[in-house]
Amino acid sequence: MRPSLEIRDLHVSIDEKEILSGVDLSVQGGEVHAIMGPNGTGKSTLASTLMGHPRYQVTQGEILIDGVDITGMKPDERARRGLFLAMQYPQELSGVTTGNFLRTAVNSLNPDHPMPVLQFHKLLTEKMKLLDIEPDFAQRYLNEGFSGGEKKRNEILQLAVLAPRLAVLDEIDSGLDIDAVKIVAHGVNTLLSENMGVIIITHYERILRYVKPHFVHILIGGKVAVSGGPELADELEARGYDWIKTEADPALAE
Amino acid sequence: MAETLVHNPYLTRCREKGEPAWLLERREDAWQASQSLALPRPEKTAIDRWGLEQALPGHAAAPQTAVEVRSDAGTHLITWNGAVQSAQIDPALAELGVLLIGIDQAMGQHPELLEPYLASHILAPDHLLAALHRTYLQGGHLLYVPAGVEIDTPLEIISALGQEDAYPHTLVVLERQAKVTLVMTELSIGSSAIRVNSAFEAFLGEGSFLRYATVQKLGAEVRAFQPRLAHLARDARMEWIVAQAGGGRVLTTNQTLLEEEGASAESYAVFLGAGDQVLDFQTKMNHWASHTSSDMDSKGVMTGRAKAVYTGFTEIKKGAHGCASWQKEKTLMLSDECRVDLIPALWIYDDDVQKAGHAAAAGRVNPEQLYYLMSRGIREKDALLLLVTGFLATILDRIPLADVRDAISELAAETIAR
Lengths: 254, 418
Prior knowledge:
heterodimer; A: 254 residues; alpha/beta; 8 helices; 33% helix; B: 418 residues; ten-stranded mixed β-sheet; 9 helices; globular
């Protein structure tokens, strides 16, 4: 079955303040959706809410994966249903190697079929090669002392190893130089198939030159203000965000 | 000493067993002293209802269930309530005069080795539980390493306790320039609703080295007083590795007396608490001579309604010049109901100090880290275990014994699961 993610009328608050005010979105396997928008418009809130960050309160609406409502599920349950979030600010964890962490994650996703150490090692090596990652990476403590670029690459490595059904990439290109953006994009393109849907959340259209979206959605004021094809991203590059406020939804332009 | 002597039937038993006169005399003195001594008073732990002072040594009868404990170490000693169950020594070590035998055997075969050390040391201030240990000490372990003998492979003691109160004593004597690693595990067999008053005492001769790793995983109902004490002669070095995980009510002191110049000690300790466990854990470094150094690094993980008080004492006596000492203690609290008190104490009476200081921190799980791990599909308990593993890594990385590292990781996992 092709993966599917349905977001219906999603309202989300942090500390009683509403950030998302009715987001609708539908993503199928094989599709790449870009969610763009100015700062502070709720893009990262959407990403964190999808993953189940405890700070974000869903006050209305629902999120379904493959038709199952996951709105009340904990992050680990969502992950086991195939959701993955490449985080904007990955945590550092001293004393736990990247390899140990990833093996724990792989075996958590398939508790009935724990992966033999050698097979895991082979998988990890293959994916590290894909992303041009040094072999000693797996022995380093998780994100500890990593540069910004290394952390982002580690997120994509996790994506590659865990092979989710639905991947959300939150500002995966921020802080990366152009070569790193190309490597990350190459990784995502290689992994893309009918069995994985992708949401790319980004402030800049730069990454979209390397990972071609099928759909582009502009989030403004906690809502999808306008949706379109890849040409929408080009238009943003040329004209910025202000025209949407007036053309797409005059109410938003005050 | 008390005016009227109070009769103690246990001492009659010892006399009838034919114990040496010096030991009977020490037991009698300790017993008379105990009449007027009070319980120790740890600053933040009330131990007066633990009933430790009522513990009476049993008969060290054979356990009702066979002691199914094995050791992979070539040289090992396994005891049950202090009585030897199995003992093995590498013939090459035996040839060199190394002894790893029960205290009872030592009393018959080598009383002259015990006499200078056994039940002789009185800590100041003395207290009721220490005096009762000297009165009742029953069975236990002797490790003796002659001068200049260096042993590369770790030796092992497994002390199984259960069914009745116990007073086992572990004595380690290293002659000058001896070097050895001893791993000791304390565990419960059968009912653990017992009281334990066990002591460890080590005497390190000039230039000797002892790495002593102790893993305490007694049952949850055990109430225990567990003093551990080491005396270091000139240039001796001691490395403590202490994993304190078991027992329902435990008071333990881990004390190093740096008695002569150049002596040094390191202590790496992990303490774990879950359920209703109460632990009072004290580490003490006493710098009594010049140019002695010590380093303590302790980490605790607490969950459930467990309570721990950790005290790190450093003393530098007046006249002990050029000493260096550092202590660090850190805890990770996994539940809202657990409690930890960290008490660093520095008593420095000399002006010429090379280095002295401490760092203490009690923290909780970082919810962002937990979220990050769980977002990869890792269940909360497994995620907590990874966080705990990471937390303990700085200590585990310093333990050169893979078996002990694994034992600590396993105990940490059990603690979280409880």
